[in-house]
């Protein structure tokens, strides 16, 4: 007589209830979870749910309660997207000695050091694909406040109050104070190219869009696309970067992932 064998129709992964798998996955490292998502369709389906208990557990483990309850991460609503933003945030190891990263992991603080311009890069740079992130200047701008990108070779500190980001061929930036583009130590024109463009207001979210395929850098403000700021970017790994001069000013960065067109 034929005996039923569950292997005829089901895999072991399909027989284990989702809530049990989620509980098991919550004990794994993020690297292991990535490998698990490639193992079978069932595991891929579970780990593709960015708001399940797996990602909630890791989100609560990595992110401070302060930032989880704040409005800073409103643009990344799922647990997994918040985690992604955390791992792309400012790097405490790649910034001026006059800058430190606050405990929330997303906000830099520039110490009040006279006659110094200071910069900070994100933890992860990009050399392919399309990427978007938000920058929120949460303190006074001072005379120079620049948002943009740089390579690893760009300096992160210099004497005086200058547009450090954009001061050489390794960085590209938009000075929010006078609405000028900066690269290779020169002003690259007024930006955005709009009549009577309003100045940046502290607390506004600037969306930065890097297209490594078209080699362009663009910006949005209040969901309005401001146009392409830089073209012909090098085929090198480029990092989200800001430079600041005002003492005790703070700047937050939230990585969004691939930009949504339209």
UniProtKB/TrEMBL annotation:
<dbReference type="GO" id="GO:0043161">
    <property type="term" value="P:proteasome-mediated ubiquitin-dependent protein catabolic process"/>
</dbReference>
<feature type="domain" description="B30.2/SPRY">
    <location>
        <begin position="68"/>
        <end position="260"/>
    </location>
</feature>
<dbReference type="InterPro" id="IPR050672">
    <property type="entry name" value="FBXO45-Fsn/SPSB_families"/>
</dbReference>
<keyword id="KW-0833">Ubl conjugation pathway</keyword>
<dbReference type="InterPro" id="IPR003877">
    <property type="entry name" value="SPRY_dom"/>
</dbReference>
<dbReference type="GO" id="GO:0051961">
    <property type="term" value="P:negative regulation of nervous system development"/>
</dbReference>
<dbReference type="Pfam" id="PF00622">
    <property type="entry name" value="SPRY"/>
</dbReference>
<dbReference type="InterPro" id="IPR001870">
    <property type="entry name" value="B30.2/SPRY"/>
</dbReference>
<feature type="domain" description="F-box">
    <location>
        <begin position="10"/>
        <end position="58"/>
    </location>
</feature>
<dbReference type="GO" id="GO:0045202">
    <property type="term" value="C:synapse"/>
</dbReference>
<dbReference type="Pfam" id="PF12937">
    <property type="entry name" value="F-box-like"/>
</dbReference>
<dbReference type="GO" id="GO:0060386">
    <property type="term" value="P:synapse assembly involved in innervation"/>
</dbReference>
<protein>
    <recommendedName>
        <fullName>F-box/SPRY domain-containing protein 1</fullName>
    </recommendedName>
</protein>
<dbReference type="InterPro" id="IPR001810">
    <property type="entry name" value="F-box_dom"/>
</dbReference>
<dbReference type="GO" id="GO:0019005">
    <property type="term" value="C:SCF ubiquitin ligase complex"/>
</dbReference>
<keyword id="KW-0524">Neurogenesis</keyword>
<comment type="function">
    <text>Required in the presynaptic motoneuron to down-regulate the levels of wnd and restrain synaptic terminal growth at the neuromuscular junction (NMJ).</text>
</comment>
<comment type="pathway">
    <text>Protein modification; protein ubiquitination.</text>
</comment>
<dbReference type="InterPro" id="IPR035784">
    <property type="entry name" value="SPRY_FBXO45"/>
</dbReference>
<keyword id="KW-0770">Synapse</keyword>
<comment type="subunit">
    <text>Component of an E3 ubiquitin ligase complex composed of hiw and Fsn.</text>
</comment>
<comment type="similarity">
    <text>Belongs to the FBXO45/Fsn family.</text>
</comment>
